[in-house]
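Action item from last week, closing it out:
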Amino acid sequence: MLFNATPYISIVIPVYNEEKNLEELYRRLTQTLDTLGKSYEIILTNDGSRDQSSRMLQQLHERRPSQIRVIEFNGNFGQHMAIMAGFERVRGEIIITMDADLQNPPEEIPKLVAAMEAGHDVVNTYREGRQDHWWRRWVSKAHNTVRAWMMPRLKMQDEGCMLRAYHRSIVDLMAATGEATTFIPALALSYASNPTERGVAHEQRFAGESNYTLYKLIRYNFDLVTGFSLFPLQVFTLLGMLISAGSFLLVVFLLARRLIVGPEVEGVFTLFALLFFLVGIVLLGLGVVGEYIGRIYQEVRKRPRFVVRKVLEQPMVVPLSSSLREERVKGEEVL
């Protein structure tokens, strides 16, 4: 069977230590897409898994070589880089991203396809009836609130849901950026002209444990804030101006008090408290600046964002159009 050179739908899935979920993911995903009745491809990026995911992905490719493609990284480069590797190789017009843990039900994909066919170029989603641990729901809700306040132009109700759909033109723009660190949903919104949101179901993880710790979630949100907003730097600029003005008024007050009352020993601990407060503010500000400088450093080094060890796919066969066939026949007759 020849490979469909131009599938209508491309599914991009990052995989990291998901051996217990891959078989069920394959069953439910292919069943949903087959029922949809549109041509499709599935791109699975193995992000340096240490379990049997690599072997299982190869087996899935062998089952449907014309529809399942596998990208193997030579290390762990992160979820968003795994998706970007898929974006660089997609062939469909509608590109859908999702996680491999089945918390994003594949059965929700037709809802996203319908929204894209209605004329939207980005379909964001929010999870209805979340099944995560209470602390993850709390952290997510708090960060969504802070992000909406810091970056009001990014209209996302739920930034953590990876079941999203993009038009091919948006994906091509994102793949062309070449950013070493990025946040795909926010990057897509910066290019979108007609985005929308849809509520999708949410399920408990099918098997295994989540790969996201609290620290990784914090780092994940740093990428969003520092990659798409100058708000933290602007806050510290305003805070520095206010503290400078307050410090000037305090100096004037202490000088006047010394001239009126005379030398005093009282107030030493108050001054130390103010000093520690100001030093803390300075160190916090340096940390924020350091986050931005670190990302600048990563970009200017121009190192590869990820390294692909191998790609499992059936060679693309592009069918000749009737005009091209006629030209080829004429050329052969001349020879």
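Closing note: The longest strand covers residues 9-15.
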